[in-house]
User: What shape does this take?
Amino acid sequence: MKSSKQFWTGVKIYVDAYQFIKKNNMAWTFIVPILFTAFVLMSEIVLIDSLADYWGISIIDKSKMGISSGFVEFIADSVNFLFRIILFIFFAYFAAYIVIMLMSPILSYLSEKTDKILTGQEFKSNFIQTLKDSIKGIFISLRNIFMELILLFLMFILSSIPIVGFLAPVIVFLISAYFYGFSFMYFSMERHHLSINQSVRLVRKNKWLAIGNGSVFSLFLMIPILGVFLSMFTSIIAVVAATMSLYKAEVFEQKIGNRTLAN
Assistant: This one.
């Protein structure tokens, strides 16, 4: 499948995935994001306030230089404010992975149910297996965060080059979309007993499918203020879309090394 066709398959299948969820009585899962949203927002507020206050107080406590207390407090308040902004940007940027990791159990369930409906294949499904799949999904998300940070750091260095700097926002968006798509696709790949290395090679081979899937999720995440909240709902559609797209693009018919995945 050509790159452009893969990309649009990953994007357009969101509509089919939403209809699939409604048709197969899976819409109840949209209740879950409401609970997770409250938890994530409260956790972020508490953590940001705690860390910011700690650094502000720490500056005052450690200042033994004979500078006036008013000036020290001004510096502490300024650092406190800047630190809050930095932490907010950090959590906003990586909120998607926090969403994916927190929702791994429900995303694993949705991917498996979608697979079962599409293929009629029965999978060993119990609490222990779901927990194992969720842990592996969390591990992949952490791995993707690490890889994305490395690539973003390289982009930051290369952005001083005029042409690269001009294209940097687009490249950063595509990098993020790729890793988001990878995270959603992995729930299906793990169920087909692919190792992490095999999954990485398969996603690279179908990178535009992953980018297409992750792009829709990324666009919702970029919506000001409501991004994190909407991304939780979108993640439910995204994992179903990722599972459906793997079959539509015949990814499991491909070979990785000497292994045909459909066998």
The beta strands are 255-256, 259-260. The first helix runs from residue 3 to 23.
